[in-house]
Amino acid sequence: MADHPRLKIAIATYGHTRALKSGEVGIKGVDPDFVEVVPIIGAFRRMVRDVEFDVCEMAPTTYMIARALGAPFIALPVFVMRRFHHGGFVVRPDSGIKVPKDLEGRKVGVRAYSVTTGVWTRGIFANEYGMDSAKVTWVVDDEEHVTTLRLPANVVQAPEGKSLAGMMASGEIQAGFTGPAGIGRAGPPTRAWEQGGQKSAEVYPELIPNVAQAEADWFRRTGIYPIHGLITVKTEVLNKHPHVARSLYDAFVEAKNPYITHLKGSEGDSADERKYRGLMPLVGDPLPYGLEANMPSIEAMLTYGLQQKLIPKRMPLEDVFVDPEKV
Question: Of 95, 100, 299, 321, which residue is least crowded by CB atoms under 10 Å?
Fold first, then answer.
């Protein structure tokens, strides 16, 4: 049918997307062709570089940069991953770094300058703790998803053959992000990339003490609940089939609702279930969709992107998100 497009879709399988990918929840007026990409971060690169998919999950900062540079896709306010970012940042115990301001003049490891975790944490350190990001040397060991991004002068590539974990162990860098955002893995994303990781004999202390309390206080004061994954759609698809925006949005909501009900019970002990169930007393719905519920987070993301020289100017909201309520 002319107005019943077949769409190539790349999204990860989460508790709140499983019913969509299995076909239990349909997408009205759409024939979905789900493509499995593991890790899903590989799909981000394929989308921003080759616009390979009609619908694709993407890291919000990658999307923001690509969209500011004219990418032919736009986001729906469907945020498939959330987490706070005061934690996951460690320092060498002999570094003398006690507060984020102390990072100025130091070398800090992060997988890529535009990685979402890095953008959120730098933004928090700058706006809440007074750190000047431009005075920190950010050492990266992977390429940016958006290859045309022009990096600030204080972003440098790790020496050939060296890992961030090794540089942290030797003292060549004094602080870094943990896990896939930094010293927890090496090189570009491949299958089992996050599970393999870089091995470190040392466990480093977190920079921010009492992380959970700091995050809760910040959320209650600002309303910011960091976005860590969103859904993009080719603008060409929406121009030809405007109904697709609302159909996709409604399908994601329908697939999510039973998962939220599930979280309110006591069953399920996956890492995501523990995380989101633990956040519910603080944030309510741990996966809020829609523009209105997410405006503090969206505005913060755009502000941080501008402050960190990832985007050349602040884009109007209608250039960043389709409002499915108005389609």
Answer: 299
∠ Cα 8 59 124 (to 5°): 165
pTM for the predicted model, two decimal places:
0.93
- b/e sequence 226-258, b meaning 16+ C-beta within 10 Å: bbbbbbbbbeebbeebeebbbbbbebbbbbbee
In a domain, 282, yes or no: yes
CA distance 128 to 135: 16
DSSP-derived 3-state class of residue 307: helix
Distance CA(231)–CA(79), nearest Å, equals 7
Among 221, 252, 280, where does a domain finish?
A: 221
For tokens 């990860």, name the residue: 12
Query: Is the dihedral angle over the CA atoms 142, 47, 83, 153 positive or is it negative?
Result: positive
Residue with the two structure tokens 């860098």: 173
How many domains does the chain divide into? 2
pLDDT, tens digit, for every residue of 72-125?
Answer: 999 999 999 999 999 999 999 999 999 999 999 999 999 999 999 999 999 999
Beta bridge partners of 8: 33
Residues 175 and 60 in one domain: no
Range of weakest confidence among 80-84, 151-155, 176-180, 234-238: 176-180
Q: How many CA atoms lie within 13 A of 219 on its CB side?
A: 22
